[in-house]
Amino acid sequence: MNKARSKFPVVRQYIYANTAAFGLYSDDLLDWRQEHDLDFLLHGSGMRSKGLKIIEDTRDSVASMFHCKRDSVALVPNFSLGINMVLNSLKEGAKVALLENDYPSVNWPFETRSFKTFQISITTQLEDDIKNLIAKENIDVLALSLVQWLNGIKVDLDFLKQLKIDNPGLLIIADGTQFCGTTNFNFQESGIDILGASAYKWLLSGYGNGFLLFKEGVKKELSIPVIGFSSANADEEKKEKIPFVKHFEPGHLSSSVFGSLNFSMYFMKDIGMDKIEDQIKCLANKAKLEFSNLGLLEDAVIQRKEHSSIFNIKGNEDLYKHLTENDVICSQRGDGIRLSFHFYNTEKDIDDIVKIIKSAS
């Protein structure tokens, strides 16, 4: 893991605890992007066929990494745009369960349309509350982030799988932006019907790239009212034969930004997703213990069996300033300070942060 860590210049200068805001570029990714742009500089439109191949290679890589069919992968610039395209095809008046204070790009698209929404507070017994609400209100759609952006609470994936079995008519839509890239994940075997993610955080790919994954049954039920020339691969004769996922790709996609996603997924696979997952779990367990001992975590985080590597610690503007002055890169979120740890972090990073926090007292 030290070899992989050496690829990220930022961690040589700072304690980077801010992947939940933006995942780091590697030296190797920068090299790839510069070579790609140089090809465009020298060959212009001669790069078109190569660029189209990069897009399709990226689709293959997403399908491989998250264990789904390639024709179920829609490439989109970000989760926010993708989810809005999906919701245009859901029935009006549908009952939708949302999590309170979930990421705005999850909740707002539902709240501003003609759906009937229900809010679920995020507590220690989150899964039980979700199950009870769905039974009580006969919910049509459950939409939620797999990992909460404010405090890192992680929804139990086994629970979602069982929930789908018990409620086969329930449409489960998940935002994986704070999840994808942290663990091995099999979409096909999950209880999730639609999974979307922006890739600039834990997938380390920069802005402008993301994806939506669809189960086969959902593809048959949705009619996406979006179309463009690129949906038909610039072939007028294919207008009436557009594949489902191509409705989400009406215009040109950048081979530079989606190629960055492809590159970073290969980079992470080369490290080994099992190793990445183990490192993140190790960091999450250590951080939870250390921050709990300092009394900096809310009960809903402390009492849950499994947590992500995102933590919102109690702290005011003075503590945030103290951390940043000591070269800790983090974010102010909600009423506290959010710290997040990826595989390029170390246990020493957490120890150093604890010392810095103590020195502010």
Structure in words:
The chain is globular, with a radius of gyration of 21 Å. It is an alpha/beta fold and 361 residues long. A seven-stranded mixed β-sheet has the order 2-8-7-6-5-3-4, sandwiched between helices. It is built from 14 helices and twelve strands. It has two domains: 2-26 and 273-359, Aspartate Aminotransferase, domain 1 (Alpha-Beta Complex), CATH 3.90.1150.10; 31-269, 3-Layer(aba) Sandwich (Aspartate Aminotransferase, domain 2), CATH 3.40.640. Helix 3 packs antiparallel against helix 10, helix 4 runs parallel beside helix 10 and helix 11 (273-293) runs parallel beside helix 14. The two termini are 33 Å apart.
Descriptive keywords:
361 residues; alpha/beta; Aspartate Aminotransferase, domain 1; Aspartate Aminotransferase, domain 2; 2 domains; 7-stranded mixed β-sheet; 3-stranded antiparallel β-sheet; 12 strands; 42% helix; globular
Helix count, DSSP H or I runs of 4 or more residues: 14
Question: Mean pLDDT, nearest integer?
Answer: 96
Q: Nearest-angstrom radius of gyration?
A: 21 Å
State the CATH topology of the largest domain: Aspartate Aminotransferase, domain 2
SSE map:
Elements: H1 2-5, H2 10-13, E1 15-16, H3 27-43, H4 48-65, E2 73-76, H5 79-87, E3 95-99, H6 104-111, E4 116-120, H7 126-137, E5 141-145, H8 157-166, E6 171-175, E7 194-198, E8 210-214, H9 216-221, H10 255-271, H11 273-293, H12 299-302, E9 310-314, H13 317-325, E10 328-329, E11 331-333, E12 336-340, H14 347-359
Parallel strand pairs: 1-10, 3-4, 3-5, 5-6, 6-7
Antiparallel strand pairs: 2-8, 7-8, 9-12, 11-12
